[in-house]
Prior knowledge:
heterodimer; A: 606 residues; mainly alpha; Cytochrome C Oxidase, Chain A; 2 strands; B: 358 residues; alpha+beta; Immunoglobulin-like; five-stranded mixed sheet; 8 helices
Amino acid sequence: MGQAIAVTADQGHEDGHHHHKETFVTKYIFSQDHKMIAKQYLITGLIMGAIGIAMSVLMRMQLANPGEPSMVFQALLGKWAPDGVMDPNMYLALVTIHGTIMVFFVLTAGLSGTFSNFLIPLQIGARDMASGFLNMVSYWLFFISATIMIGSLFVELGPAAAGWTIYPPLSALPQAMGGSGLGMTLWLVSMAIFIASSLLGSLNYIVTVINLRTKGMSMTRLPLTIWAFFVTAIIGVVSFPVLLSAALLLIMDRSFGTSFFLSDIYIKGEVLAHQGGSPVLFEHLFWFLGHPEVYIVLLPALGITSEVIATNSRKPIFGYRAMIASILAIAFLSTIVWGHHMFVSGMNPFLGSVFTFTTLLIAIPSAVKAFNYITTLWKGNLQMNPGMLFSIGLVSTFITGGLTGIILGDSTLDINVHDTYFVVAHFHLVMGISALYGLFAGVYHWFPKMFNRMMNKSLGYVHFWLTAIGAYGVFFPMHFVGMAGLPRRYYTNTNFPYFDDLADTNQLITYFAIATAFAQLFFVYNFVKSIFYGKKAPANPWSSNTLEWTTGDKHIHGNWDGPIPTVYRWPYDYSKLNEDGDYVIAGQDYVPQHIPIQKGEEEMNH
Amino acid sequence: MTAFLIIFIAALFAISIWQISKIVSLGKAPEPDSDAVEVANDGDNKRQGQYMLLFGIGLYALMIACFVGYKDYFLPDAASEHGGEYDDLLLLTTVVIMVVQVLTQGLLHWFSYKYHGRKGQRALFYADNDRLEFIWTAIPVVVLAGLILWGLFSWNDIMDANMDDDPLVVEVYAYQFGWKVRYSGSDNTLGDANVRFIEGQNILGIDPTDQDGMDDQVATELHLPVNRPVIFKFRSQDVLHSAYMPHFRAQMNVVPGMVTQFKFTPTVTSEDYKSTEFMTEKVRKINEIRRQKSKELIADGDVALDPYEFEYYLLCNKICGASHYNMQMKIVVESEDDYNTWLETQTTFEKTLANAEN
């Protein structure tokens, strides 16, 4: 039906995609097929995630029993844990690398890289990305940068340890801490390569979404996943170059004697020649990326959630246009709120007022999104697949974590909670846990498409519930620890007896953290086993409307064996009724996008 | 308490594992529709919906438990003039967000249970509703506008570091890993300073040619007279630090190469603050914990912990290096007389210079 049109429309671009001979190297390693690249991103991201989570467990163990020797430290940290007692420099290094890995390597590359690559061509009806070659280069640059970042863990004086925000002068002066030597150089090199990778990827996503949509796929027929990936890519292109410039200027200050960020410094008995720079400038440059980065992490997760919730509720997503408007509003506002990380940085207080205003504005589209998700569940026919559970979990943590942003985004209230554990609790819930839930939802939902096999749902349920209980167990009590004024990034709190009564809660948080980390093994086992031994997946296991489920189960470079389907409707015609009060297609509560408008069906103006 | 928590968690996980085994065995049961492998069936939908409801209730319980169990974690009443307003705004904001939290989480988990999938159940095709969208855009706008306005007025008051009410000028000086204080002496004016003047006893780099600096006094403790506005000038000699004085609701980053400032009026003396009901109870609890800990330490042949007495403190709250976690300074708020008596015991810069020459 209607595919004759598609054939003529797409003839030009089919050529050259079919039937070229694939060797092992071109198929699995230097592949230009977006599906394979997506899987490469996913698996690299998951491995980095395992490292990042393991680091958080080490930190939590130190915080639960500060200064006490542990076999684990001795085994894993070697010389950084003499007699099994963690070195304070190593604690700060773990803080730094955990943050860097989780934010950039897992939640930017692992989440957005995986699903943008996988879903953009499949859901818009394209045979591949606009440039398969650049897409491949993007992945391999990411791989190199990940390798350098992991390699930096093994240098003599330790990896970068100035926090993931690498504020100079601490990050610029090897005299200030060991990690600011070779470790920081490698960090900067790794990030520079990462940014190149991210830019290549993002440009590719943008071009693909704009140019390669199949016939009938107007912008307002795009699934919300694609909208989210598209806008995320735009934010990335706007803000990542600024981080690159900050990194380059920092490299200049470190190695070539310039003074962009350094001035009037006396360290280790010596006055440095640097004069006239300002660390506050670095903070501005860093957060001009750093804040949009939060949304680069979060928007893809929200996009995935929109799709998964609609499909599993068997209902259209509520307020499709409002959702798009919210994504655009969040994207725009995200580039003008960076100053809320700097209320007490010493910048002009007037700027603080402006940033408070813009920051609290961003709560509005976020609130709209949350309400729309809840309304989508209302009167649905909820199919509680693991992907759906993680999506509901995401909405829950997004609300809990987002609400405390109203405290932190208010310059007045920020004064006393700035850089306390309250902040740690806030951003871990709203961007860490929420984005990870989005990642898991995406993996459970699209695993059948990726590997043609199903993941085990029972293990999925176990994974979800242990993670959900553990995540709240870790981060909800943490708000209260923060309210006591406990600063983050402290190796131990025992030097302030005032915090002695928080020790119990810190231990509790640690137990939850360890348990939650181990709960991820259910996922790892399920993921690995299902790739090889999972049950064979049906063509459209979740009865979904989007185009990726129309390809059949053959995995070919070019996606559709025949012509690309033409699109006749938006992707959310779930449980739609015709004039007679029956489902539009008898006996089926969904109408995929490539099905033309049926007799007796009202065409909605979405 | 710890033992109780451990048991509690162990129990939780035991229940989880029991449930796991149950679920796994259920998963193994032959599926009624063989074509829908590993896709949620009615049984799954019902069970997971019920778990969602339970989880929602559990979340409520967690919130209540935290607010009740951790209520003495909240910082006691502010000891500064602007702190009262800060606390009021924080309370109002917390109430607002908790109301939203309770409502939305309730709906989310209730809907997840109520509308769990059943065979033959029809979902409602409900794509949008402009009025609803308008309502839940407008409500946050109005509520946030109120919070923003109040916040901005307070912010302007707090950040207005004017000299109109003759504030005491004090410099707080940060270095890896400690703090120094410089009092501006009888002229209430700090002498010029730069790290390039650091030499011998002149550890803060005060300009020896600037007359304003001659009566400056450098101290290792921060003493403040009660009820007099103080304007802090912050300087760092090496990396970023942050001067955080939680009990005064005050914080400002300390930035090498520039002078940052913060102004507040301490309103409660250290003595009065120590003897509040809240603080005596908190200190009693902490000392109880320390006594227990000491017993264990002595048993292991270590030195016992000193008993704790509350003092105001200033701590570093911006990552600054290996000993960041122990960069603190004692703050004493006292009567004007006591303050003056203490100040007289501190050496002026002029004397320091003279001593250095001898």
